Amino acid sequence: MTTDWFEETLHSGLRARLRIDKLLYEGKSEHQHLILFENKEFGRVLALNGVIQTTERDEFIYHEMLAHVPILAHGAAREILIIGGGDGGMLKEVLKHNTVSRATLVEIDASVIAFSKEYLSMICEEAFDDPRTDTVIADGVDHVETTDQRYDVIIVDSTDPIGPGEVLFTDRFYAACKRCLASNGVLVTQNGVPFLQGEELTNTITTLRQLFSDATCYTATVPGYVGGCMAFGWATDNKSSRATPLAELEARYIAADVKTRCYSPAVHQAAFALPGYIAEMIA
Ligand code: SAM
Question: How far apart are CA 217 and CA 236, in angstroms?
């Protein structure tokens, strides 16, 4: 009997393998190669262009930490923009906040959404059908450069900087995000695993510091992303957001009444305490 393995080539010197217990879908969209399979440890696994995007068992860590940290730090976020995020997991977390009046999701590849609704409903649940959801099929950079809308929180839930996601790591994109952030708005970004992708993190934070008065990163460990903790970029002109006292975060979390399995106000605050090697990368 032959066993199939999915092999993720992360960097020239590192490959990770996950057993394909059941292949559910494999195909090519206009923008990228998609594969979905079942794995004993991670449940359903989605990979685009050979890189794991989300898994059924650990998605809550990534989505909770990238959604609730900026929303609860902001304290009054009503308009949310998600760039990428076609699996719907980020949308589901954002919509847990009753105070959010609209969540706009700008995804370049319509097939990721269609496919996630069919095969990853345990991740997106009913998020795409929520009346507060506005789904736009477009390149994220075009949207932030042209929209008249102003957003309280922008969440960049992108692929890595390869293929269509490359533009979402450019100075041009970050400057356009700043253009459509409301005053006191917060921008957060997916910035990969610093141990392996340090240059990507350094470049993002360097640019964000040129644009915003407060720019740093915070971290969370997501088991499906190999190489240690992940970094999330953080940028705002409202310095007090990051300094929100624990008691205030707790009061907002209780008032929001969101159910979480990873996020808590204490985890939120601790996530900004950076290990020395990461602090050095963004110094
Ligand atoms: N959690 C994931 C990770 O860390 O790798 C990201 C998941 S989400 C599926 C990433 C989405 O970004 C993909 O569906 C992809 O199609 C979308 N995307 C890539 N480039 C984009 C662009 N320029 N504009 C909008 N969406 C983009």
Answer: 12
The CA angle 277-153-127, to the nearest 5 degrees, is 105
Backbone angles phi, psi at 135, to 5 degrees: -100, 125
Domain boundaries, the chain: 5-55, 59-281
Give the atom of ligand 1 at the shortest distance from the alpha carbon of 163: 20
In whole angstroms, what is the distance from residue 39 CA to residue 21 CA? 5
Pick from 107, 136, 225, 229 the residue to mutate for probing ligand 1's pocket: most ligand atoms within 8 Å of its CB: 107
CATH of region 59-281: 3.40.50.150
Q: Residue 237 catalytic?
A: no
When the candidates are 3.90.76.10, 2.50.20.20, 3.30.465.10, 2.30.140.10, the CATH number that belongs to 5-55 is: 2.30.140.10
- Point out the catalytic residue in the list 58, 152, 157, 160: 157
Q: How far is the CA of 2 from the centre of ligand 1 (A)?
A: 32
Per-residue pLDDT of the chain in tens (283 residues, 90 and over written 9): 557 999 987 877 889 999 999 999 999 998 889 999 999 999 999 999 999 999 999 999 999 999 999 999 999 999 999 999 999 999 999 999 999 999 999 999 999 999 899 999 999 999 999 999 999 999 999 999 999 999 999 999 999 888 899 999 999 999 999 999 999 999 999 999 999 999 999 999 999 999 999 999 999 999 999 999 999 999 999 999 999 999 999 999 999 999 999 999 999 999 999 999 999 999 9
CA–centroid distance, residue 202 to ligand 1 (Å): 20
Protein residues whose CB sits closer than 6 Å to any atom of ligand 1: 48, 53-54, 62, 83-87, 106-109, 112, 139-141, 157-159, 164-165, 167-168, 190
Strands (E), 20-165: 22-28, 33-39, 43-48, 51-55, 79-84, 102-107, 133-137, 151-157
